[in-house]
Batch of 3 targets.
Target 1
Amino acid sequence: MLPVTTPGLTLGLAILILLGTCPETAKKQSADFYDDGGGEVTPQTAIRELGDRLTEDTAEIRYSALRELVVLEHVFALKTRLLEICLHDNWGPNRSEAGRALAALWPDADVKRAFASCLDAEPYVANTIVEILALRLDADAIELLQQRFASAQNAKLRYSILQAFCGTRDCLACEFVLAARTHQDEDERVRALSVSLLARAANPELKKLFVALLKDDSQRVRAGAI
């Protein structure tokens, strides 16, 4: 990322400070990081400059600031603005990147409410939130995903939610499938993936369920149940 210079402030130096590099060492790393205005650069001024860019009318400028915040994970001071962008920005990529930045504050109550709302947004944004929750899968994240799965009309979103459990513990994936009844979903792909996740658990108590799934209309589901 190239440093962005404004009067009295070099963002590149401020970023190094935020990442734990002292100002003098940061200046030695690149001549571009010197403050041409002669003023002192602090984390607070860096965050203020990013905050100003988050209010720009040009979507691409807001996007560049959001990308920097995702890297820094220093977002608490800009939480209110990030929530506004996550919920109301008119450009999907900005809403997604605001979500990624806010993930550093999970499980903050306001962030949870924003993520719940974004799961009802357009697929681009909703899938980003699913990805974020998949990296956590604590009790709050699982509850949110289960609620959204139950109400989702879009089969692709339901499948995306179920995929979030592919990389987790077998017992956790099995619990989600059974609790959300994903193996009874109307979509063939969702049912087939559900059977695959259940099979990974190798739970003998699921024998009757697999026998019932052998009568499924889908060949893929029947094959997974064998």
Target 2
Amino acid sequence: MIVAVNKLNKIVKVSMDKKITTLESGGVLDFPASVKIDNNSSSTAGQQQKQGQGEQHHHRILYITNFGFLSSIKHLVPNVALLKAGLGSTN
């Protein structure tokens, strides 16, 4: 499970055995509100498979929405955004 920990400006992964791993922290995160994982096929891998040059790889993409709440209540300019981060690839 991937979780947006908004008050701490973190994106974490919680494993089945309840181990917490930080995936993203600080930087452009500004009260991250939600996350979505998208399993897309790589266009170059798709081309390689068409040419018979190997397996097709699936690249997992994480989309994150920034709400910017903490910045706005501190009278700072909030970084309200839709962010995209790679999560690696699978075969």
Target 3
Amino acid sequence: MRAIIDLFGYLILVGGTVVGFLNGSVTLIVLSLFGGPVLLGLSHLIGIAENVQARLLNLPPTPDMVRSLVKNAPKLVVDGTDIGIDVYPEAGASYEWLELDGEAYMRTKALRKYVEHVGNGYAFALPGREKVVLRALDHYYEGAPVFWSEGHAYVMLSAIGLSAVRENDRIALRAIRPSDEGA
């Protein structure tokens, strides 16, 4: 529905304005410059209402919502030096911070030195830990250990024995102690 409203909004905005200039119709130009943005704004408001409704009803995020969250996610500096993890490509690299359904997710690229692509998943061999193999999914669902969005893979940090603490514009990676896993 939103895609159709967006399409008509742009069509009216651009097409109506061009036709108005070609015909010398100031009224058509004014209506196009007003009507197109009104439809685009309406589409944006529908998107906001859908997100609010999903949150109020505690619904899982749709693929479109996840894409929107990924696009708008803050990029923060990732630091794993406290637990001996070198972030790819170098210390101080920034990656998206995603929190979905109470779980922290990070791009697998940040852990590239410890990740191996295995079949339809990834194997994580973090320093001082056993290798963990996780299946990658095409889209997010609640509890997904690894999922793809916008051409990038994201891993649930707790699935590989890590947690993350956000400290202003920085993400500090921490190891989950065995006593933390049951909590």
